[in-house]
UniProtKB/TrEMBL annotation:
Pfam families: Erythro_esteras. GO terms for biological process: response to antibiotic. Signal peptide: none annotated. It comes from the Bacteria. This is Erythromycin esterase family protein.
Length: 428
């Protein structure tokens, strides 16, 4: 049958050449995924990220992960080329879902970053950072380690914030429930702490390490401020907590760009639901925004390139309920008339697609069902959910279609007892 959807073959890393050319001089490249547990999404993003760093001078990778854990990775890949094995380092990601960043695919990427950075001069080493907002207690603990170096006012403000949260046993959900219907909360304490840390005199080090630690301390304070808002918004329901989270991730991305200078370039790894422009999905009806939309609006569409990912069938790592042990699950054939089913019927193999070519086909400019698997997944319930109505050629600038995919390979990480609260029936 004659193929009507324009596409390019996708078999090996060299097949990414047209994508590198299309990215051009974009300052920010957002790389999605249709699940948090698919081997090929991680490996193709890694292949593209390596080329962006080597060939286009991108400065860092920022991921949908917690700031404190990711910053440990950042320091390791820049300062510890012969440090503990990457597989051991990544077991610090012990917050459920542990497999998102604690997996062998990321371990291989961390090994590559170490090798790459070992050959780079100071100031040219590629970084690895977390954009997310969940780590309220961990960020407070990190601040307590460093605030004293920034003056007495900062140290006292940090102590007050820490003590305010202490009665809640490091459990953000317990805190949110306790303050939901009273006027007493910790908002003033974390805001005062953030302002105190922002007023400190920056320190500098010959290797840039002190500058990064300064930035990380202030970033942890920003996480604490926005996490406090996030967990309270969570209990109110609706899309407000989602928006707090994605605004925080965009603010963090902009701060990282500022840290690395006016010519800096960033690679972002997040779920399609965060990187694909929300204005071209049904999210807009609920008043929800995301990082892809905010990046285009704040940085200019010409400076942002968004790549979506998806597959027709295969297997995935996920949990059957929030906080449940991970399992390898079968991903059934995509629902009929979905974006993935159309690509399977029309192309039937891995392919790279570009939105400027897809826009020539009016049928592809409709809202099509586009699969989205979260960390919670029940394959037998796919017909009731797991699809986001999407205008694909507008939501993304390019799309990597993988006809059949496999589950990624988690590390044997023991999960922390404090599981973040379940927010939505679909979780990304």
């Amino acid at each position: 049958m004659k193929t009507i959807i324009p596409h390019h073959p996708l078999r090996r890393a060299a097949d990414l050449d047209p994508l590198l050319e299309a990215i051009g001089d974009a300052r920010v490249v957002l790389l999605g995924e249709a699940s948090h547990g698919t081997h090929e999404y991680y490996t193709w993003r890694a292949s593209l990220s390596k080329r962006l760093i080597q060939e286009k001078g991108f400065n860092f990778i920022a991921v949908e992960g917690d700031w404190p854990d990711c910053f440990e990775v950042n320091l390791a890949v820049k300062q510890q080329p012969d440090g503990q094995p990457s597989s051991k380092l990544l077991q610090n990601f012990n917050r459920w879902p542990t497999w998102m960043w604690g997996n062998w695919e990321i371990a291989h990427l961390v090994d590559w970053l170490r090798q790459h950075n070992a050959q780079q001069l100071t100031g040219h080493k590629a970084g690895f950072y977390g954009l997310d907002v969940y780590s309220l207690w961990e960020s407070l603990e990190q601040i307590m380690q460093y605030a004293g170096r920034k003056g007495e006012a900062a140290a006292q403000a940090a102590q007050r914030a820490y003590k305010c949260f202490e009665p809640y046993s490091a459990d953000p959900q317990e805190y949110a429930e306790a303050v939901a219907f009273v006027s007493e909360d910790c908002e003033d304490e974390v805001l005062t702490m953030l302002r105190a840390l922002q007023r400190r005199t920056p320190t500098t080090g010959t290797d840039g390490l002190e500058k990064e630690i300064d930035f990380a301390t202030e970033q942890n304070a920003l996480v604490a401020v926005n996490a406090e808002r996030y967990y309270k918004a969570m209990l109110r329901g609706g899309g407000s907590s989602w928006n707090v989270r994605d605004h925080h991730m965009m603010e963090t991305l902009q701060r990282l760009l500022d840290l690395h200078g006016p010519e800096s370039k960033a690679i972002v790894w997040e779920h399609n639901t965060h990187v694909g422009d929300a204005r071209y999905t049904d999210m807009v009806a609920d008043g929800m925004v995301n990082v892809g939309q905010l990046a285009r609006q704040e940085l200019g569409r010409e400076n942002v390139f968004i790549v979506g990912f998806g597959s027709y069938q295969g297997s995935v790592i996920a949990g059957k309920s929030w906080g449940a042990p991970f399992e390898k699950m079968t991903v059934p054939e995509a629902r009929s008339n979905s974006w993935e089913a159309i690509l399977h019927a029309d192309i039937g193999q891995n392919a790279l697609l570009f939105s400027d070519e897809l826009r020539r086909h009016d049928a592809l400019l409709d809202h099509l069902n586009h699969r989205a698997i979260g960390v919670v997944y029940r394959p037998e319930r796919e017909r009731f959910g797991n699809y986001v109505p999407t205008v694909v050629p507008e939501r993304y600038d390019a799309f990597l279609y993988l006809d059949e995919t496999r589950a990624l390979h988690p590390l044997p990480t023991a999960a922390d007892e404090h599981v973040p609260p379940d927010l939505y029936p679909w979780v990304y």
